Amino acid sequence: MDKLQAQAPPPTRESFVYDQLREQILSGELPPGTRLRQNEIADRLSVSQIPVREAFGRLRAMGLLEHRPQCGVRVARLSKRGLEEILMIRMALEVLAISLATPKIGQETVCILRHLLESISQATRENNLHRRSQLSKEFHLTIYRASQFDKLYQMIVDLWALAENHGSRGIPVQSPELVAESEREHRAILDSVERGDAEAAAQITRQHRQSVIDRALRSSPDNGL
């Protein structure tokens, strides 16, 4: 007899609503401050209000939604302190991810990373800051994906998206000095990864991320909560 293939159970209605709203918040489709009404969400997703209410509770626990008297449920706005917290947590997870990934990265991935650095340099020369930012993100995530810890990787991706939606997208790296420093750090990270030196890769990543945090907080208004 052929073995039956294991299939993932269908999601519950609450999980379905949660996944839909979470993706829309993290992607920016539902920007900070957007008011969410249970009945409208239920109608749009063809479910009752009960799973919507349960999903709202999970999203509030994650800090993605907030409830204020007289205002109802809204996509959360972060204060500068909240943005700092997200970026600090992400930095800690990135340091852990690169430490775990470095011993597992082979020559094929190194070649991909080299190509990404070349593309970053080209985007810099063309003054295409958006493309440069996206390529830099791809460079880091390519490394973290190699850790083979899927939950760790997904947490970094989610925190990255959440930080972008709250003001760190396109953090200014305008001056030639900062651009040159960022590219030196990228190359130092790759050199450490290629040598298999996880400790050095982690140290440079921490330094690289701290400079990004400092710039983000200088350029981010304090929205309050």
Report on the structure:
- With 225 residues, the protein is mostly helical.
- It has two domains: 63 residues, Winged helix-like DNA-binding domain superfamily/Winged helix DNA-binding domain (Arc Repressor Mutant, subunit A), CATH 1.10.10; 140 residues, Up-down Bundle (Four Helix Bundle (Hemerythrin (Met), subunit A)).
- Helix content is 69%, strand content 4%.
- The chain is built from nine helices and three strands, in the order H-E-H-H-E-E-H-H-H-H-H-H.
- Strands 1-3-2 form a three-stranded antiparallel sheet.
- It is elongated and about 55 Å long.
- The N terminus is likely disordered.
Shape: elongated
Helical stretch count? Answer: 9
Order of helices and strands: HEHHEEHHHHHH
Q: What is the name of the CATH topology of the largest domain?
A: Four Helix Bundle (Hemerythrin (Met), subunit A)
Q: Write down the Rg.
A: 20 Å
Write down the oligomeric state: single chain
Question: If classified by CATH, what would the architecture of the largest domain be?
Answer: Up-down Bundle
Task: Describe the largest sheet.
Answer: 3 strands, antiparallel
Helix content: 55-70%
| Distance between the ends | 60 Å
Q: Could you give the topology of this structure?
A:
Elements: H1 13-27, E1 35-36, H2 38-45, H3 49-61, E2 65-68, E3 72-75, H4 80-101, H5 107-125, H6 129-145, H7 150-168, H8 176-195, H9 198-219
Antiparallel strand pairs: 1-3, 2-3
